[in-house]
Write a structure and sequence with these properties.
The protein is mainly alpha-helical. The protein is about 40% helix and about 5% strand.
Length: about 200
C-alpha cells in the first residue's frame, strides 16, 4: 500500500470505534471474570472486563521462521501513522511496529487471496475483518491503513489492559495471534524478539 501521510488521515481521528472507554484493569472490579470463563474477544473489544492469564513458555522460540521475508515489512511505510495511532490509543508504538513487522513479513503468502478480494485478514496489521467487526470498522475501512493500524492498536490495547500491569510483549503478541492461547507461543516470542532488536 501507499505510505500513510497526513493527507490520508480522516478528520475524525477517533475513528468509527470512538474514543476508548475508561476501564478498570483491577481484578477486584465487579464485572471482572477469569479468562477461562470469560469471552476474551468481547473483553478486548470492550477494552477491559477480564483478567487474562498467559503462562510463560521457555520452549517458545523467538527465532525468525523459514518463511519470514524481511523485505516484505511495511513498517517503514507507516512511520507517521504508527506514531499518530499509538498516541491516540495509548499503546507503545514499538509494540505496533513489532506486530506489523511480523504480520507483513509472515503474511506474504496470502497475496493471491488479497488480489482476489477474498482474504479474511487485512494487512498491515492483518486484522480479521469479521472476527473483529465489534470494534466498529467495516471491511472497506480496514483497507485504509489508518483504520487498519487503529484497529490493530485497539486490539493490542484491549489485550494489554486485560492482561494487567507487567504484561510482557511476548504475552501480548501471543494473544494478538490467538486470543485464547494459554501459554506464550513461538509467534509471541518472535514479536518480543522483534521488539528487542527493532529490525525495521
Amino acid at each position: 500500500g501507499s505510505p500513510l501521510d497526513r493527507d490520508s488521515i480522516p478528520p475524525n481521528s477517533a475513528g468509527p470505534a470512538g474514543p476508548m472507554p475508561e476501564v478498570s484493569s483491577s481484578p477486584e472490579s465487579t464485572n471482572e471474570k477469569s479468562s477461562q470463563s470469560g469471552d476474551r474477544q468481547g473483553c478486548v473489544i470492550a477494552g477491559g472486563g477480564c483478567f487474562f492469564s498467559v503462562a510463560d513458555n521457555l520452549g517458545a522460540s523467538g527465532a525468525a521462521p523459514w518463511y519470514e521475508e524481511p523485505s516484505k515489512s511495511q513498517v517503514g511505510n507507516y512511520i507517521y501513522g504508527i506514531e499518530l495511532v499509538a498516541s491516540e490509543v495509548g499503546v507503545d508504538a514499538n509494540v505496533i511496529r513489532s506486530v506489523m513487522y511480523v504480520e507483513t513479513t509472515h503474511g506474504w503468502y496470502e497475496a493471491p487471496l488479497r488480489w482476489a478480494g477474498i482474504n479474511r485478514t487485512i494487512l498491515p496489521m492483518n486484522v480479521h475483518a469479521s472476527y473483529w467487526s465489534g470494534l466498529g470498522f467495516s471491511r472497506a475501512q480496514l483497507q485504509n491503513p489508518y483504520y487498519n493500524i487503529k484497529a490493530g492498536a485497539l486490539i493490542l490495547r484491549g489485550i494489554e489492559v486485560n492482561l494487567g500491569p507487567g504484561a510482557s510483549v511476548a504475552q501480548i503478541g501471543t494473544l494478538y495471534n490467538n486470543i485464547y492461547a494459554p501459554v506464550v507461543t513461538n509467534y509471541g516470542a518472535r514479536v518480543a524478539e522483534v521488539y528487542r532488536t527493532q529490525p525495521w
